[in-house]
Amino acid sequence: MADTDAGTTEPGVLDRFETDGYAIFRGVLDQELIAEAAGHVDWLRRRHPGLRTEQLGHTLMRDDPFWVRLVADPRLLDIAELFVGPDIDLFASHYISKPPYTGQAVLWHQDAAFWPLEPMRVVTLWLAVDRSTPENGCVRLVPGSHRGGIAAMRANTDVDNVLGEEIAVEVDESAAVDMVLAPGDVEVHHPAIVHGSAANTSSHRRCGLTIRYIPSSTRITAPERPYPSAFHLRGEPGVNLCNPVPVYDPARHYPFSGAGRR
């Protein structure tokens, strides 16, 4: 496993990522920003009471200045650049906030089975907003599973779960490893790695923000243009029509440090 401190790039991290399909970066974001992210989740929950908190997804991003500020943080982009290069677009982002006792599982899957990207050059940064442990349903990954093909998916509504689907092949769960993270840590994974997470049956919320970065040369092939979460974040623009950065309005938006500055 590649496991590095914030601000460092341990020699060999990219080689081990190629082998294992994931890496962990510790202490990437400061606790003040993480506290703002936790408040943002609560604000979104109040603003969208009809949505489960596991479903605070990318379609809400287009008019959310804090969300765009968070995914554009230079510390996160520096990590993304290691994997996708200097010209970076956001493809999608999604809070998966599992409430105590009732938080849903995410069944085994590969992200690449779902995404309208061509080519499938993308990396996920999973930012821990809360402490993430086996007890509250942390992410579990099968190291090296990204080196196989992309398997089919099948419906599964027998178990209460976020996706309503699971990978249609047998998964060796004994090979899986738990992504135990502190708030501000970042786990990075390959789009083809097999991963999932258990339900949260503990008394502690488990919230993480998934951030899907692509090189600006990777095309978002979904028919909606611009895609609701397509933003150009660093370097040279490329093939995607991207949304403008939303302008902060205190009457409509979540208040945060630096809001309104351009």
From TrEMBL:
GO molecular function, one term: iron ion binding
Alphabetical list of InterPro entries matching this protein: Phytyl_CoA_dOase-like
Record's keyword annotation contains Oxidoreductase: yes
Pfam families xrefs: PhyH (PF05721)
Keyword terms, alphabetized: Dioxygenase, Oxidoreductase
Protein's UniProt keywords contain Oxidoreductase: yes
Name of the protein described by the UniProt record: Phytanoyl-CoA dioxygenase (PhyH)
Organism: Actinacidiphila alni
